[in-house]
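ingest -> validate -> predict -> emit
validate: passed (alphabet ok, no gaps, 384 aa)
predict: started
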Amino acid sequence: MRGFRIGVTADRRAEDLIAAFERRGAEVLHAPTIRMTDVADDGEVLASTEEVIAAAPDHLLATTSYGMRRWFEVADAAGLGEPLLTCLSSSRILVRGPKARGAVRAAGLDDHGMSERETTASLIDLVCREDLRGSTVAVQLHGDSGPVELQRLRYAGARVVTVAPYFWRTRQDDTRVQRLVEAICGGGLDAVTFTSPPAVHALLEAADDVARRDELLAAMRSTVTPAVVGPVTAAPLIEAGVEPIMPERFRMGALIRLVCENLSERRVIRLSTSAGTVELRGRLVIQDTGTVELTPTSLALFRTLMEAGGSTVSRATLAESLPGENEDHAVDVAISRLRQCLPDPSVLATVIKRGYRIDVSGCDPDLPRCRDVSPRSSRNSLDR
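emit:
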């Protein structure tokens, strides 16, 4: 992962993501776009707990591990822990995913099933297979629970009681978030990770604040790979026209492995040239004579030239790869700076009156000229 730079938007468990990427050699830009916040007044949670106990629900829908654990902790501290567990022991408990199941079982309860896609929608689908007319359904809400899903339960004839042990807040200090927006739009990142839908929404809102939403989305459709932990997190990106990569198993470890594999296997360009083998890995140019880290402007030019595989690239095309409005002269200046920082500048050839190219003349024709898969074609299908 050396040479790659990854954005991390998570707040909770961000340390796990950051440490995993850094151990593999990547550089990480951490900009938590939202934070998980406990309900300020536990009285709200206790009032909801008393309502649940009085209702003696026929069904309990457990959506998150943290929410269930915090609920039980608050209830226990107020002396309601035992009555709550006694009440729920008679309920048919359904869980959204393995983590929520673990929290339920850690409390000494057992569940009766798990949603197929580990989403709130599929959890509602599961309970709606039952005849809910006249029944009571208790729902542990998570930070992004929406009223639409709860309304489905009411339409099915159920009485719904809820408890919300925590919620999401947008970060008040948005300096780091704005740096993340700038890095995505300016080509300073190779990938950005998301572990919750609110994190996606918050980043898009931050881009709106500086009128760069379109620019941000364009970057995530091309040069910056967005990676999500599961389909719930993917939804707001897909709605915005961005196709993220997503692991087949919706777990943090699987997300880390997928990002590493995607970048190291799919985001590397290698050419056999007149100056030997040249490899572009993230922001690093690796030549036989040395290694150098490129600035965003030089990286944009060099990637465009490397992707051409030795073909001539016109000044107009190179200008399109640079930020802002650029003319031929600006391209020539940027090419000059690029040459100055390359370990062996002879790899970059000028084609008089036409443009520039990577010099592949005289290289072994049996060696592959280019090994690269575009970000779009490398992304996992979300239909899996």
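The two ends are 26 Å apart (CA to CA).
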